[in-house]
Write a structure and sequence with these properties.
alpha/beta, 7-stranded mixed beta sheet, 5-stranded parallel beta sheet, 48% helix
């Protein structure tokens, strides 16, 4: 008999379970068909809403007993007999609002859940407010949830959504005016998010990172936070970590933290896969996309739909022509079933939109059952049609934008840039060319610059590239730097055999250059040689978490996930980043930096 392989719990699944328990008044969520839930209000700040939105739709919140979901900063009515579940960041502004709620006894009971840990000073402020409002008995629980990250897929997470009105981590890291305090604050914030990811999964990973950049500082901070928590017997979040994560394995998870600056071209490519194209052209955000519905009105499409859109789930990583063909097949299948329902209605003498005639009871049982089954499936077919229409509309909008923007053909580079009609595409091609050819002569660079000037475009992004002091070797590669680091670690961990390709030597060299940090070891101050030796003693990783500091995209995500599926022994690759940015958004960050350093 084959051995039963335990199912690995996903980060998204564990975050959903944690949120459901929190909303159920910090108790395991029960089936609403067995017991009626406690009716309550859910109070969130903007970040809490961004975390919950891709995971729990309104229907599921209602099933958990949420009658109202409200934003913390907005004016709220008093509900003195109703329990309130708070899910907010522990900022001074948010704590001040909750203080007022406690003083005015706004709700019947208070379940205060902070997204990240609440420090002692703010906790004492809440206690003083509860005392002042005589609501101490109403405060049921104050819980640190460690959920300061957003799960968009089973194997994809971000720390924050992209916000064009704030400086991104990539901007802060590369801005020469960034102060030491700002950099420390950024590193702590990212490390807190990665610590929460590990705590939610219940795993203590081996941490690897390149040296000499922000990724190293973040890695060291994550390691210190996990080590400190392991030493805290009362509040240890990693008890029996391998069992909690659903994976009994001889190897521990690998957390690989990379720096965006090592691979800029991946962020600018115009790719041909469905999900990446939707993000690039239609600005997919939080699994939702807003488009004109053809009647001049903006309509929002939810592409996650709780996994109900099978076409999206199956083909989001596929090439666009494959998606178009799949949509056509789905449409034909739907039309076939629709015709079958119409034919059965006519055979049984049923009018369009009418109830089944009472005389139908005298028909043969098998015929009645067949009709009943078909009619019952009608709502499912209508939902399927809605999802097909949604995917088809996304496809048509993508094709329309592609027609307007032009496409790349086989021409000399300068002629190619000059032939493009979309300004963003012109800048993207120019930037990629400069990145991939660091040894270009002055005349060749000036030729590209002149084309950009003739089109009256902002040159700041090109100046930023010129000012970069170093361009990493991996920028020339068609494979992302993150994927190459993963590949080098796996190759270096695999026992040597006869006939190993010559590339293994370079893989070992690349892997050895990465710093190794282990929170379970007493000291993290290993020399480069000791770190490399320790890394070679470890078994090949089966569960890999790749996190990119400074922004990521769906191209890199899909490449890493597909790579993991192709490697024997790798059970899962999870991709995370500070925020997802499409090429236009990343190009804007480069332009802003270029203006600062000119």
């Amino acid at each position: 008999m084959d051995a039963v392989v335990p199912t690995m719990e996903t980060l998204r699944g564990r975050q959903i379970a944690a949120l459901r328990a929190m909303i159920n008044l910090n108790q395991p969520a029960v089936n609403t068909l067995v017991a009626e839930p406690v009716w309550k209000v859910l109070v969130m700040d903007k970040y809490g809403q961004e975390i919950i939105s891709p995971l729990l739709p309104v229907k599921q919140l209602r099933e958990l007993g949420v009658t109202l979901h409200l934003l913390l900063q907005r004016k709220r009515e008093a509900l003195p007999d109703v329990p309130a579940v708070y899910f907010v960041s522990p900022t001074d502004e948010n704590v001040a609002v909750i203080e007022e709620d406690l003083k005015s006894a706004l709700y019947g009971s208070f379940f205060i859940n902070t997204i990240s840990p609440l420090n002692r000073v703010r906790l004492e402020k809440l206690a003083a407010a509860a005392y002042q409002g005589s609501t101490i008995q109403r405060v049921e629980k104050v819980v640190d949830q460690f959920l300061n990250f957003i799960s968009l897929e089973d194997d994809l997470f971000v720390l924050r959504p992209f916000n064009a009105n704030t400086n991104t981590p990539y901007h802060i890291i590369n801005d020469p005016s960034t102060s030491a305090e700002e950099m420390t604050s950024l590193i702590d914030s990212i490390a807190d998010g990665l610590f929460s990811v590990c705590a939610t999964l219940g795993v203590v990973p081996i941490i690897r990172c390149p040296t000499g950049n922000a990724a190293e500082g973040i890695s060291m901070r994550v390691e210190a936070k996990i080590r400190d928590n392991l030493r805290d017997a009362r509040n240890n979040l990693f008890v029996a970590d391998s069992i909690r994560s659903g994976q009994l394995s001889s190897s521990r998870p690998l957390l690989l933290i990379a720096d965006r600056s090592a691979d800029l071209t991946t962020m600018l490519h115009h790719t041909w896969s469905y999900q990446a194209l939707v993000h690039d052209v239609l600005e997919l955000e939080q699994n939702r996309v807003r488009m004109n519905d053809g009647n001049g009105r903006m309509k929002e499409y939810d592409l996650s739909t709780g996994g109900r859109d099978e076409l999206w789930s199956r083909h989001k990583g596929a090439a666009f022509p494959v998606v178009a063909e799949a949509i056509q097949l789905e449409v034909e299948e739907y039309k076939g079933k629709e015709e079958e329902i119409k034919r059965l209605k006519q055979n049984f003498g049923m009018g369009e939109g009418t109830e089944m005639d009472a005389a139908m009871g005298s028909f043969l049982t098998d015929a009645t059952n067949k009709l009943g089954s078909t009619v019952t499936s009608l709502p499912m077919l209508l939902e399927r049609k809605r999802l097909i229409d949604q995917d088809n509309w996304v496809r048509m909008r993508r094709e329309k934008k592609r027609e307007n923007g032009g496409c790349i053909t086989e021409k000399p580079l300068v002629d190619e840039i000059a032939s493009l009609t979309n300004g963003d595409d012109v800048l993207r091609v120019a930037v990629i060319y400069l990145l991939c050819h660091p040894s270009l002569g002055r005349m060749e660079k000036e030729e590209v610059m002149n084309v950009v000037r003739e089109k009256e475009l902002d040159e700041s992004a090109l100046h930023f590239i010129e000012k970069i002091k170093y361009i990493h070797l991996f920028l020339h590669s068609s494979v992302s730097y993150s994927l190459q680091m993963v590949d080098s670690i796996i190759a270096a961990s695999t026992p040597s055999t006869i006939g190993v390709p010559m590339t293994t030597a370079s893989s070992h060299s690349e892997a050895d250059s990465l710093k190794l940090l282990d929170p379970k070891m007493m000291s993290s101050n290993l020399s480069k040689e000791a770190s490399a030796s320790r890394a070679r003693q470890l078994p090949p990783p089966q569960d890999i978490i790749v996190f990119v500091v400074g922004g990521g995209n769906y191209v890199e995500y899909q490449n890493l996930v597909e790579y993991g599926k192709s490697k024997p022994g790798v059970s899962r690759v999870t991709y995370g980043t500070t925020e997802l940015m499409n090429p236009k958004q990343f190009l804007d960050q480069m332009s802003r930096l270029g203006k600062l350093i000119r």
